[in-house]
């Protein structure tokens, strides 16, 4: 079961809790791909830094592009304007943090 | 060689210089190396130069673009005659069938754009694609409405885009994907744009070409044509003087 870890940057003037952030991500996946698609994604929040507006999520390797599209479709979190950009994608958490630091 | 990405459609409020600078910097951050902004028809040349300087400071190449919204094909021809040598990109928003057909067959038009929310005015069908394939026009898709629309409106838009991109590919009409963003929060990375195009079944390789190779080819062709050394396609002056 291959997985991918995505480092994300939240682009907004506001700060959001991890729950608000994940609600927005799940809603975007549900809107675009429905419950069937969402169930295939295996989305999990791994790390979240509200101050730095950084997050790490995990998904299945087959659904990376699907999650990327869903994240790109987010324009609001809790009705406040926001955008989410994928910084890096990696197969392991260790490699992901290494890539971010570079 | 590293791939260069271009966004040919940014729509900031040009009166708000802070927003313009923010969007240019954001474009660089997101990985774009060439951007074009939709400028008004009578936008002064010194202001275009000013935008070019701001972009140069942000390490982004700038191309001037004008969006034409003619009501008749005659109006389109007149506008093209006046503006072709002033702007590097000419996009036509086709709001009637006559205008769409004229724009598709006119070699001075670079981009064909269609109203993304009024579905009765999307005239990109097989006849339009055939005309466009014989000229130089590309089919432009703005991603902004995909982000801002919801529910049935977005479903209809995706359905139209799926049909139109299939037609464009069948007739070898280049596709250009642009952000069409009016503020920095609506701007997306090139890879994010390509991921979003999978929603209307554009394959990954074509999607990457639509944000890199295709827009860059338009700019290269037009810059060559606007250069004072250009004579005709394939012919250019390489040296001037008495010893030539």
Can you describe what's shown?
The complex is a heterodimer of chains A (102) and B (244). Chain A is α+β, with helices and mostly antiparallel strands. Chain A has one domain (3-101): Alpha-Beta Plaits. Helix content of chain A is 41%, strand content 33%. In chain A, helix 1 packs across helix 2. Chain B is an alpha/beta fold. Chain B has a domain at 67-225: Metal-dependent hydrolases (TIM Barrel, Alpha-Beta Barrel). In chain B, the strands form 2 sheets. Chain B has a 7-stranded parallel sheet with strand order 1-2-3-4-5-6-7, sandwiched between helices. In chain B, strand 3 (61-68), helix 3 (73-83) and strand 4 (89-93) form a beta-alpha-beta unit. In chain B, helix 4 packs parallel to helix 5. Classes of the chains: A alpha+beta (102), B alpha/beta (244). Chain A binds chain B through residues 11-12, 31-32, 65-66, 68-69, 71-73, 75, 81-83, 85-86, and chain B through 30, 146-148, 150, 184-189, 191-193, 195-196, 198-199, 204.
Main interface pair?
Answer: A-B, 17 and 19 residues
Query: What best-fitting shape of chain B do the alpha-carbon axes yield?
Result: globular
Radius of gyration of chain B: 18 Å
What is the number of helices of chain A?
3
Descriptive terms for the model:
heterodimer; A: 102 residues; alpha+beta; Alpha-Beta Plaits; four-stranded antiparallel sheet; two-stranded antiparallel ribbon; 41% helix; globular; B: 244 residues; alpha/beta; TIM Barrel; seven-stranded parallel sheet; 10 helices; 9 strands
Entry summary:
Chain A is built from three helices and six strands. Chain A has 102 residues and is α+β, with helices and mostly antiparallel strands.
Topology:
The complex is a heterodimer of chains A (102) and B (244).
Chain A: E1 3-11, H1 18-41, E2 44-49, E3 54-60, H2 64-72, E4 76-77, E5 80-81, E6 83-90, H3 93-101
Antiparallel strand pairs in A: 1-3, 1-6, 2-3, 4-5
Chain B: E1 5-10, H1 17-30, E2 32-39, H2 45-57, E3 61-68, H3 73-83, E4 89-93, H4 97-105, E5 111-113, H5 126-134, E6 138-142, H6 144-148, H7 151-170, E7 175-178, H8 190-197, H9 204-211, H10 213-226, E8 230-232, E9 235-236
Parallel strand pairs in B: 1-2, 2-3, 3-4, 4-5, 5-6, 6-7
Antiparallel strand pairs in B: 8-9
Helix pairs in contact in B: 4-5, 8-9, 9-10
């Amino acid at each position: 079961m291959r997985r991918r870890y995505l480092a994300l940057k939240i682009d907004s003037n506001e700060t959001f809790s991890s729950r608000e952030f994940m609600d927005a991500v799940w809603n975007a996946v549900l809107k675009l791909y429905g419950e069937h698609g969402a169930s295939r994604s295996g989305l999990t929040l791994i790390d979240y830094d509200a101050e730095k507006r950084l997050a790490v999520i995990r998904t299945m390797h087959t659904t990376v592009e699907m999650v990327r599209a869903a994240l790109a479709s987010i324009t609001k979190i809790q009705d406040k304007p926001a955008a989410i950009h994928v910084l890096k994608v990696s197969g392991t958490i260790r490699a992901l943090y290494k890539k971010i630091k570079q | 060689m590293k791939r260069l990405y271009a966004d040919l459609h940014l729509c900031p409020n040009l009166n708000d210089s802070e927003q313009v600078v923010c969007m240019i910097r954001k474009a660089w951050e997101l990985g774009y190396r060439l951007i074009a902004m939709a400028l008004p028809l009578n936008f002064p040349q010194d202001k275009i130069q000013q935008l070019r300087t701001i972009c140069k400071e942000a390490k982004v190449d700038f191309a001037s673009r004008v969006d034409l919204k003619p009501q008749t094909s005659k109006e389109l021809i007149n506008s093209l005659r006046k503006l072709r040598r002033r702007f590097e990109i000419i996009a036509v928003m086709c709001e009637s069938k006559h205008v769409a057909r004229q724009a598709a067959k006119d070699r001075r038009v670079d981009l064909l754009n269609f109203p993304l929310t009024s579905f009765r005015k999307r005239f990109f069908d097989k006849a339009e694609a055939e005309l466009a394939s014989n000229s130089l026009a590309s089919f432009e898709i703005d991603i902004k409405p995909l982000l801002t629309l919801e529910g049935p409106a977005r479903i209809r838009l995706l359905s139209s885009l799926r049909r139109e991109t299939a037609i464009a590919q069948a007739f070898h009409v280049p596709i250009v994907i642009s952000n069409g963003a009016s503020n920095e929060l609506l701007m997306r990375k090139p890879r994010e744009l390509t991921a979003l195009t999978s929603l209307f079944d554009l394959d990954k390789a074509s999607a990457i070409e639509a944000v890199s190779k295709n827009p860059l080819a338009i700019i290269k062709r037009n810059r060559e044509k606007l250069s004072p050394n250009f004579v005709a396609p394939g012919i250019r002056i390489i040296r001037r003087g008495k010893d030539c």
